Amino acid sequence: MLKILFFGDVAGNPGRQAVKKALPELIQSEEPDLILANVDNLAHGKGITVKTLEELIRAGVMGFTTGNHGFSKKELADEVFAKYKDIIVRPANIPETYPGSSAITLETKKGKVLVGHFLGQVFMEKQFPDPISSVFDVFEKWLKENKTEDIVASIVDLHAEVTSEKVAFGYFASGKVSAVVGTHTHIPTADAKVLPEGTAYITDIGMCGAAGSVLGMKKEVSLERFINKSWTPYEVPENPSKAELSYVIITVDELTGKSTGIKPVHQLVDL
Ligand SMILES: [Fe+2]
Q: Looking at residue 107, what is its pLDDT?
């Protein structure tokens, strides 16, 4: 049985610290074959840098998905997507002019795992500057191009705002990939399941980020924006004493490519 551990959106330094702190023990206890993380908010809550990605690589994370903020720090992102093109995947349904790989294949002891990544469309137009193709229009073509004979398991991260789009896509992709996980909203959902055709599914894994925050950002800033309708830039809490750590552990029968289980975990980690 092939075991995949997938961390939900790692938000800023508290999220990175939480992953680094928890991972050695998780590697011992769970013995995952593949460790993945969504890094849309990795560098100070928005985007990715080589330095922050390397922190997680050193900690043992083997592959990465991104999201609507993946290109926010443009020059830094270009560097990340060039240097780590084999282990970081960008959304496949954004314009081709964006750098990076729209699919990655990672080697494990049990065989090759295909990792895909798409953005949702609904309520995403203000969060991404360019047109996003519908995942429902492009998924099958993507699958045909990338799911080769030697792939033993496949997992797709749909980074989307609304639950309905993610749930619908889970059914759409059921039986075609081993797992579909949702990211972006930072709140873990209580609907992890294996669909009848053998696809593990969860609407949102949740985040790895500061406890006592609003989605990994200072709660004071969020409250200010809601109460006074003022535009105040989001900030990542500096030294929180605890972090939320959200991940799923997915088991896949590498002989059939079908999932046999998905275990969601949401816990607090002392920093
Ligand atoms: Fe996001």
A: 98
Report the separation in Å between the CA atom of 106 and the middle of ligand 1, taken as the mean of its atom positions.
23
Q: What is the mean pLDDT of residues 100-113?
A: 97
Residue 6: CATH number of its domain? 3.60.21.10
Can you give the pTM of this predicted structure? 0.97
Q: Cα separation of 219 and 234, whole Å? A: 9
Q: Catalytic residue at 69? A: yes
Q: Please name the amino acid found at residue 150.
A: D
Per-residue pLDDT of 3-49, as tens digits, reads: 999 999 999 999 999 999 999 999 999 999 999 999 999 998 899 99
Q: What backbone torsions phi and psi does residue 193 show, to the nearest 5 degrees?
A: -165, 165
Give the Å distance between the CA of 41 and the centre of ligand 1: 7
Q: Which of 126, 180, 171, 123 is nearest to 4 (CA)?
A: 180
Domain containing 189: what range?
2-270
* Nearest-angstrom CA–CA distance, 199 and 261: 9
CA–CA gap between residue 194 and residue 201 (Å, rounded): 6
Number of domains, the chain: 1
Catalytic site residue from 44, 69, 117, 184: 69
- Cα separations in angstroms, 95 against 67, 138, 158: 14, 12, 17
* H/E segment holding residue 222: helix 219-227
**Cα–Cα dist 104/87, whole Å:** 6
What pLDDT is recorded for position 207? 98
> How remote is the CA of residue 109 from the centroid of ligand 1, in Å?
31
